[in-house]
């Protein structure tokens, strides 16, 4: 009798599983370029202040770019929400950016267009080392806990807020492997903030998680990290911002 | 309840997935059960195992339906077990190395967060709530209080905190005994002191916790008593600042040049909402106005504004930046070295107030220049049957002073509606004295020598006021905008003109023209009323339909009185005196459709335009003008953002250029008695059909860039300046008229690439331009074809941090053909070679030197000028904080500077040489509160 109850419960949970553990989360990614420019070591304080004072109203008007994360308990795909023109009606081309994760097989597959090329990064997950904090807050209707890590290549402090009651190890950008779905990311104290606006649970088909066919330079994590490291160092030597449009994603 | 067994299933998967520890002997199983204070299970709690060292996540799982959880195969060590459950205070327990294979922690009781705190703080205020043991931390910025509120007002807003009428504070039901600021007592022990005196704005966090009593702290003996304490954490005011900068330099008189001095100072103060700045400068080193950087520092967030364009429709300018110099309404920005000898002074104040809803900006700026200009101009004129040369020497002293006021107010009425008001005004006073000597030499050697003096004085006032109202509709992409503009221009000027002619060579009586002694008075008032409407409708997915209407009414009123002096009589000159009044009405209605998707933006549209001119003038031959001019103007535009940073654009447009007031007013301007300008009230707008296309590529990985562009224009009713030169007196009358058939073709190309990444870059560029411009010379149609070819190369060497070198070579060639006299075709070249070296030496010592060599040649004029300019400076940055700099500067060490230019007109080529400030030396000192930085590199970040 007891076994039957468990079996029944198990069946029920599979149904529930589809409803509560797969779906699409929508995010808004806002880049705060004044803060990023302020970190460029080759600029003088005068130049940094000038940038900040001149462009502050423009930055305030920045509405951000919408991103989406399609997730199931075992897989996730993160990319731009849509190619439709933004509110002003003018359409900018978005660089290819697809981040695929398979938690079951411990695999990643990213398609990243930057620096004038398309890179295809395949490797195992290499989860970051997360530190769990004691703060809670609400994001998009979910109570989230705070976790922190550091990007060893871009030297960024990363704060993630993960939902306690969405038991999915997925997350936006290239971050994942927390006990719950990451609903907010804060890179370097607000330089870039990616915040979920909505989580919609629905049945996900394999097609929703399919990467587009793309040609590009294949590499693994180590190769990709070396590329970033070199490009950042070169740009800083040449007094250019390594981050930004068609450059490295901050 | 539904996914009753899911946690167990998930737990299995995740523990397999996330157990990062390989199998080894010293391992144990950690298990327990998450329950609430009444021992009811907390199913599905998140259970995390953290490293005790740095609280990094080692493993995680979910509790099962009965709250139980287990970590198997855990490596022996120090851990922190953390359990979280929505609505409960996170549970933390330190796990010491295990002694048994299984460590059972039993029931782990979690305390609920007070409902009020949870619902109000976390859910409603969306404030992150930090729980550290007993401490609960509120984020102050999440609780809105009106500006100027005290901390007491802020505390009243916090859930779980009560403040009574006397200011006594209770937190979670207990009296607050102590308020600290950044952990320190504030004015003794009365908690009300801090909360009543501190501004809420200054606080970033409020922490409520139980602290040991003062007694216990003093004696070090914990008496077990706890006091409710509130700690206020002050904001780090990183957004607040003030800074100033001053540079002063002076040098002795040398080599016929009087002592030189320059000073420039600025001060800025700002915080998140306010920006205030002052700027001032003065010099006699030809530095006119503010540099781009100075301008940005001065105007702050108002340096560049979007939404400033009140004229909707085709050729929308998103940027509104005035660089039209002293005549414009905006603050002149140049940073260029002026010619001649000038004394300059400027100063201003700017204030900006920016919040999300309201943005205010106001600025006042005054600048003045006294310019001394000694020029020599050699020209070669071609007439249908003859030719002549002109040798002109002039010296003039000009004074110009301009007061500028600019105001801007932008209000976000709600999320959908925006209102912008812009006012820019200028009041200018100026006077000038010009002495000119012109020799016109005919081919037979007969010479007319003209000596003239102009003494002039003018006052100008100009003001432009716009109101723009924009509405975004609920349907995404639908919008409506309306604007109104009022502009006014007044100009009161007087001119005292004296002109004498003398003659030499085989001259006849008919070759002579009379002397002139006149007083001229001009009063001009121009006002313009404009209105614009715009409506954008997204009529299909990715398609936008824009419709616009522009209306403008302009009134010009000119009163010109000319009096002849001489023979002790003062007589009104009826030929030159004039009263003139006209109205221009301009209407444009247009529509366009745009498609936008994935970086492709294509738009096509058509507008209909109607221009009506009504005028009447009183002069020696009174008259009336009534003209209507209608035209259709198409517009096509393509922008394509391609993969791999390639960008393609192109377009076809018809531009309509309305004649300027100066060209329309039938004024006879005899300021230069040998070259008289006459306005043409019959002038029609100029139409040009323009085609352009281009391609750009930039690779941020390899730092390579390429750009190519083509443009072509064909003119209808081109406004050209036809000339009538009296064959005998050589007095030329220049009059604008409409002529069709002109065209212009141009192309440019640029290619830049690193020779060695980050160390050496080569940029190459070239362009050519072919223009065909018809004009009437003495009634004969003259087609002037001018061709110009430019090519340039720039080498940037930045091999090491302590050395940079920039070298450039630019070659320019012009070829001009005149159809009326092909024998007179001529060419000239302008070549420029330069190099700049900067060296950083030890002890913050820097050397900068630049050499520029300019070659200007025109064979026909027998003109060949080669000017080397060699500048150098040595500077030392002082002090540990690097805030000061001392600098020795040598300008034009070879003492060769003169301003030379070669140009061509409808039927002439000309060389101009202006005596300009040459060699001088200065010693300068700079103090910058934010630090001085040596600029080794030319930066574009």
List the main descriptive attributes of the protein structure presented here:
heterodimer; A: 250 residues; outer membrane lipoprotein receptor (LolB), chain A; 12-stranded mixed sheet; globular; B: 941 residues; mainly beta; Immunoglobulin-like; 8-stranded mixed sheet; 6% helix; 63% strand; disordered N terminus
Q: What does this protein look like?
A:
The complex is a heterodimer of chains A (250) and B (941). In chain A, 23% of the residues lie in helices and 36% in strands. Chain A has helices at 2-20, 33-37, 45-60, 221-237; strands at 23-31, 65-71, 75-80, 97-102, 107-114, 117-123, 131-139, 142-151, 156-163, 182-187, 192-201, 217-219. In chain A, strands 7-8-9-10-11-1-2-3-4-5-6-12 form a twelve-stranded mixed beta sheet. The model of chain A is unreliable at 1-18 (pLDDT under 50). With 941 residues, chain B is mainly β. Among the domains of chain B are: 6-110, Sandwich (Immunoglobulin-like); 115-234, Ferric Hydroxamate Uptake Protein, Chain A, domain 1 (Beta Complex), CATH 2.170.130; 742-941, no CATH class. In chain B, 6% of the residues lie in helices and 63% in strands. In chain B, helix 3 (151-157) packs across helix 4. Mean pLDDT of chain B is 86; it is low at 1-25 and 316-325. The chains are: A alpha+beta (250), B mainly beta (941). At the A-B interface, helix 1, helix 3, strand 7, strand 8 and helix 4 of A face helix 1, strand 2, strand 3, strand 8 and strand 16 of B.
């Amino acid at each position: 009798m007891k076994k039957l109850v468990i079996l029944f419960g198990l069946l029920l949970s599979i149904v529930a599983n589809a409803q509560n553990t797969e779906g699409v989360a929508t995010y808004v990614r806002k880049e705060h370029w004044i803060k990023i420019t302020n970190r460029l070591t080759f600029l003088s304080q005068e130049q940094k202040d000038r940038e900040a004072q001149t462009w502050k109203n423009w930055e305030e008007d920045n509405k951000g770019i919408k991103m989406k994360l399609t997730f199931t308990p075992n897989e996730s795909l993160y990319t731009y929400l849509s190619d439709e023109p933004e509110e002003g009606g003018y359409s900018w081309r978005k660089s290819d950016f697809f981040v695929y994760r398979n938690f079951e097989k411990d695999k990643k597959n990213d398609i990243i267009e930057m620096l004038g090329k398309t890179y295809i990064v395949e490797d195992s997950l290499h989860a970051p080392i997360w530190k769990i904090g004691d703060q809670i807050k609400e994001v998009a209707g979910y109570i989230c806990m705070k976790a922190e890590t550091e990007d060893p290549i871009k030297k960024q402090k990363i704060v993630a807020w993960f939902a306690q009651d969405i038991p999915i190890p997925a997350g936006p950008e290239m971050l994942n492997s927390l006990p719950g779905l990451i609903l907010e990311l804060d890179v370097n104290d607000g330089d870039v903030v990616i915040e979920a606006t909505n989580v919609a649970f629905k049945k996900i088909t394999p097609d929703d998680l399919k990467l587009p066919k793309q040609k590009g330079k294949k590499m693994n994590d180590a190769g990709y990290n070396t590329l970033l490291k070199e490009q950042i160092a070169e740009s800083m030597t040449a007094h250019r911002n390594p981050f930004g449009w068609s450059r490295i994603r901050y | 309840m539904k996914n009753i067994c899911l946690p167990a299933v998930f737990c299995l998967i995740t523990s397999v997935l996330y157990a990062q520890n390989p199998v080894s002997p010293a391992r144990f199983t950690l298990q327990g059960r998450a329950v609430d204070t009444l021992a009811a299970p907390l199913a599905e709690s998140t259970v995390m195992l953290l490293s005790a060292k740095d609280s990094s996540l080692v493993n995680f799982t979910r509790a099962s339906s009965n709250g139980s959880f287990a970590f198997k195969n855990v490596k022996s060590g120090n851990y922190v077990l953390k359990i979280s459950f929505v609505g409960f205070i996170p549970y933390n327990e330190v796990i010491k190395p295990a002694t048994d294979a299984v460590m059972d922690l039993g029931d782990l009781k979690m305390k609920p967060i007070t409902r009020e705190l949870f619902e109000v703080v976390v859910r409603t205020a969306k404030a992150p709530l930090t729980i550290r043991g007993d401490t609960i931390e509120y984020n102050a910025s999440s609780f809105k209080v009106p500006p100027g509120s005290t901390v007491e007002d802020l505390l009243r807003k916090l859930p779980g905190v009560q403040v009574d009428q006397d200011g006594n504070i209770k937190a979670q039901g207990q009296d607050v005994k102590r308020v600290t600021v950044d952990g320190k007592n504030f004015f003794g022990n009365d908690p009300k002191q801090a909360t009543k005196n501190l501004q809420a704005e200054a606080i970033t966090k409020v922490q409520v916790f139980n602290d040991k009593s003062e007694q216990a702290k003093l004696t070090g003996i914990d008496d077990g008593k706890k006091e409710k304490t509130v700690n206020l954490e002050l904001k780090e005011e990183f957004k607040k600042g003030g800074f100033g900068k001053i540079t002063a330099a002076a040098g002795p008189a040398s080599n016929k040049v009087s002592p030189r001095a320059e000073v420039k100072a600025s001060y800025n103060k700002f915080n998140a909402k306010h920006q205030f700045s002052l700027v001032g400068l003065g010099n006699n080193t030809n530095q006119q106005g503010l540099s781009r950087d100075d301008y940005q520092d001065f105007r702050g967030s108002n340096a560049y504004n979007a939404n400033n364009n009140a004229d909707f429709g085709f050729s929308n300018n998103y940027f509104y930046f005035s660089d039209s110099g002293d005549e414009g309404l905006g603050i002149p920005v140049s940073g260029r070295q002026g010619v001649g000898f000038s004394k300059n002074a400027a100063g201003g104040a700017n204030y900006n107030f920016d919040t999300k809803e309201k943005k205010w900006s106001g600025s006042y700026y005054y600048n003045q220049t006294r310019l001394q200009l000694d020029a020599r101009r050699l020209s070669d004129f071609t007439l249908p049957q003859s030719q002549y040369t002109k040798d002109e020497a002039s010296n003039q002293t000009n004074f110009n002073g301009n007061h500028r006021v600019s105001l801007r107010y932008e209000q976000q009425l709600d999320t959908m509606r925006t209102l912008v008001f812009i006012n820019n005004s200028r009041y200018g006073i100026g006077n000038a004295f010009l002495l000119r000597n012109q020799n016109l030499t005919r081919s037979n050697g007969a010479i007319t020598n003209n000596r003239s003096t102009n003494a002039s004085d003018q006052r100008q006032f100009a003001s432009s006021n716009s109101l723009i109202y924009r509405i975004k509709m609920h349907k995404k992409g639908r919008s409506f905008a309306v604007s109104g503009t009022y502009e006014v221009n007044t100009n009161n000027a007087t001119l005292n003109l004296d002109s004498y002619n003398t003659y030499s060579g085989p001259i006849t009586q008919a070759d002579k023209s009379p002397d002139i002694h006149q007083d001229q008075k001009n009063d001009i008032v121009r006002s313009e009323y404009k209105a614009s409407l715009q409506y954008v409708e997204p009529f299909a997915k990715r398609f936008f339909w824009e419709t616009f209407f522009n209306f403008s009414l302009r009134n010009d009123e000119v009163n010109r009185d000319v009096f002849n002096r001489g023979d002790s009589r003062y007589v009104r000159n009826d030929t030159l005196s004039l009263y003139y009044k006209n109205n221009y009405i301009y209407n444009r209605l247009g529509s366009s459709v745009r498609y936008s998707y994935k970086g492709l933006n294509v738009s096509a549209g058509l507008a209909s335009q109607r221009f009506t001119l009504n005028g009447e003038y009183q002069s020696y031959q009174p008259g009336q003008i009534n003209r209507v001019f209608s035209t259709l103007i198409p517009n096509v535009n393509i922008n394509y953002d391609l993969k791999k940073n390639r960008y393609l654009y192109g377009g076809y447009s018809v531009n309509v250029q309305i004649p300027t007031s100066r060209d329309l007013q039938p004024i006879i301007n005899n300021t230069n008695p040998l070259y008289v300008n006459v306005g043409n009230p019959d002038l029609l707008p100029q139409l040009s059909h323009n085609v352009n296309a281009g391609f750009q590529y930039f690779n941020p990985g390899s730092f390579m860039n390429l750009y190519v562009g083509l443009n072509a224009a064909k003119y209808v009713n081109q406004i050209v300046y036809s000339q009538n030169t009296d064959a005998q007196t050589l007095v030329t009358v220049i009059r604008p008229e409409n002529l069709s058939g002109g065209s212009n073709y141009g192309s440019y190309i640029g290619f830049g690439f690193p020779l060695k990444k980050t160390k050496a870059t080569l940029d190459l560029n070239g362009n050519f331009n072919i223009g065909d411009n018809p004009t009437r010379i003495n009634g004969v149609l003259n087609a002037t074809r001018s061709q110009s070819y430019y090519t340039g190369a720039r080498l940037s060497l930045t091999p090491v941090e302590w050395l940079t070198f920039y070298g450039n070579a630019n070659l320019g060639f012009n070829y001009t053909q005149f159809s009326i006299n092909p024998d007179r075709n001529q060419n000239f070249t302008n070549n420029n070679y330069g190099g700049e070296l900067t060296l950083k030496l030890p002890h913050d010592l820097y050397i900068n030197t630049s050499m520029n060599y300019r070659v200007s040649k025109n064979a026909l004029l027998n003109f060949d000028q080669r000017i080397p300019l060699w500048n150098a400076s040595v500077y030392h940055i002082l002090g540990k904080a690097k805030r000061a700099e001392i600098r020795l500067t040598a300008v034009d060490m070879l003492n060769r500077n003169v301003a030379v230019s070669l140009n061509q007109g409808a039927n002439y080529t000309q060389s101009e040489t202006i005596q300009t400030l040459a060699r001088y030396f200065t010693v300068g000192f700079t103090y910058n509160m934010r630090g001085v930085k040596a600029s080794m590199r030319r930066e574009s970040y």
